[in-house]
Amino acid sequence: MKPKILIVDDENLLRWSASQKCEEWGYEAAAAASLAEAREKIKADPPDLILLDVRLPDGNGVDFLGELRRDVFAGPVVLVTADPQIEDVKLALRQGAYDYLCKPVNFDDLQVTLANALETSRLRSEVAALRDEASGSRERLEFIGQSTATRQVLDFARRVARSEASAILLQGESGTGKDLLARYIHQQSSRSRQPFVPVNCSAIPETLLEAELFGHEKGAFTDAKAMKKGLFEVADHGTLFLDEIGELPLPLQAKILRALEDQTLRRIGGLRDLRVDLRVIAASNRNLEDEVKAGRFRADLFYRLMVIPIFIPPLRSRREDIPELAAFFIEQFSRRFGKRIRGLTPEAAEMMRRYDWPGNIRELKNAIQRAVILEDGAEIRGLNLPFSPDSGQTLAAAFPTSDEPAELASWRKLPDGRFLPILHIPTGGTSLDEVEKLLVADALQQSGGNQSRAARLLDTTRDTIRYAVKKHRLASSTITD
Ligand SMILES: Nc1ncnc2c1ncn2[C@@H]1O[C@H](COP(=O)(O)OP(=O)(O)OP(=O)(O)O)[C@@H](O)[C@H]1O
Ligand SMILES: [Mg+2]
Fold first, then answer.
1. pTM score of the predicted model
2. Does 324 fall in a domain?
3. 129: in domain
4. pLDDT tens sequence across 436-459
5. Which of 4, 160, 372, 429 is deepest in the core (most CB within 10 A)?
6. Which structural domain, as residue segments, surrounds residue 351?
7. In testing the pocket of ligand 1, which one of 150, 196, 362 has its CB within 8 Å of the most ligand atoms?
8. CATH number of the domain residue 50 falls in
9. 360 CA to middle of ligand 1, Å?
């Protein structure tokens, strides 16, 4: 990770010699001959430090410094000036310039100044990161589970995280924790202070995907009004998480392979390759080997990713994790919903252990959330688990046949005498719109058509109710304000 230095000066010789020197000292150098050019370069590829001439053809470096500070650039700026006017220098330092040098530039001085400025800025961002961590603003990731299988996955993931591995493949059924593990690997790696960029390959339309991933130059196509960095570039030095990689179209798979192999990429319409330092974590809940056999996934990319495969086993094959996961989520949701639930009744715990969990941890988490909401005792009882035969009976009672109009709610009486609706999704599914319509209609009925009161019942605004009435064409005859 070489620090990048942008040299802004209209003197060709100085630009050239300073660039040479910077590279000699182990930096990456870029140069701009005017403020306009500097603006563009800073936007396209932010440097770590700017060496800024005061007198430039299209403006004054000191003014530009103010502009930089208001805008985006927070790194150190070192001014270079031919005739140091004390007022200029004072103003510049007050505007946050790190230091200034006089022309003709003494390269020994320059070397020391650059090194100090970069070190100061590195320390500053390190302190900021530590402060973040201490104040807990960085989320703590907890990957719960003490079963041998889970411990093996985590140990391996930790070792991989700290290695130089540039590609990792996570496989496992839906809901097994691939997303969580990808974040965990990033957090455990030396890249943790750099960006973690998740991309859901199946959520971005195919026509946009290439530009999203690789970016484009200005004018690369009709809509490309400005240069745009792709996510690969945004994730430089960090981790790019390609979720659902099995959904990627074949031509893009080829480009990704190239980015991985050469650690370079080219923006759409770009003429040169950009170096990137990337770790790609790919995930799929499809069996990629089958996808390769079916010709939907490139074998070469598959083998590149398979250098480090991590398989997260389904929950049913590591049932020892169930009690700990349940306890973890009970704690979490009790706190969130202001309940005091201590755990599961022995009967409910046994049901949890026996159940097959086709939706894995996600299903368990949802089941606990629902049960915490429904439970009014101190322990979750079996009948509040969605897969319990008792719960199934309410479901079956609510939907005797699929031809019946879907009644979406059954009701549970709360200790204070109020009723809480328990929503069930009918076997064939329903739409959120339909649920909204029913609830709004119900609220209006209860409020005798009074929209304000209906809004209060649903803890929303009258405008929302009014909009819903219009959208769902609810009978307006009974509605008052
Ligand atoms: N071991 C675990 N400890 C705590 N929470 C977990 C664990 N595994 C999964 N979860 C939680 O379960 C939910 C589902 O996990 P995640 O989204 O990572 O699954 P996934 O494998 O990416 O699923 P999909 O293939 O459907 O995208 C998330 O809320 C996640 O935080
Ligand atoms: Mg996922």
1. 0.59
2. yes
3. yes
4. 887 888 788 777 788 888 888 888
5. 372
6. 316-387
7. 362
8. 3.40.50.2300
9. 8
